[in-house]
Amino acid sequence: MRRHLFGIFACAFLVTNHAAATEFTIKMAGASYRPASIKAAVGDTIRFVNDDAAKHNVFVPTAGYALDLGAQEPGQEKVLSVHKVGRFEVECVIHPHMLTVVEVE
Ligand SMILES: [Cu+2]
Fold first, then answer.
1. How far is the CA of 70 from the centre of ligand 1 (A)?
2. How far is the CA of 75 from the centre of ligand 1 (A)?
3. Domain residues for 64?
């Protein structure tokens, strides 16, 4: 299963534990993504931190970037690195109003 997911997402993202050029932090707090947008560069990483008492779910519906990291428990962090210039939206399946926009230059 894990190998299958990496195969699908390899061109736009890497799920990583390694630091890269710039690391952005997007918090899930008050059932919102904070900040609501960032501008990143290819190779940068984005750390999603669940600061809420509820589960969240990093979910990218944008064509060419589609990604679903699954449930993210309170206190849990997930880190992505971006490898494709463009713009994508990050939503949460559990809270459909949650949105942050990532521009990759
Ligand atoms: Cu959520």
1. 11
2. 13
3. 2-104
- Three-class SS string for 1-61? CHHHHHHHHCCCEEECCCCCCCEEEEEEECCEEECCEEEECCCCEEEEEECCCCCEEEEEC
CA 69 – ligand 1 centroid, Å: 12
CATH assignment at residue 13? 2.60.40.420
Residue 4 banded pLDDT, cuts 50, 70, 90 = very low
Count the domains in the chain: 1
Return the pLDDT at 1.
42
CA of residue 48 to ligand 1 center, whole Å: 12
As a whole-number percent, the residues of the chain with pLDDT over 90 amount to 80
Instruction: Give the model's pLDDT for residue 16.
Output: 64
Mean pLDDT of 47-58: 97
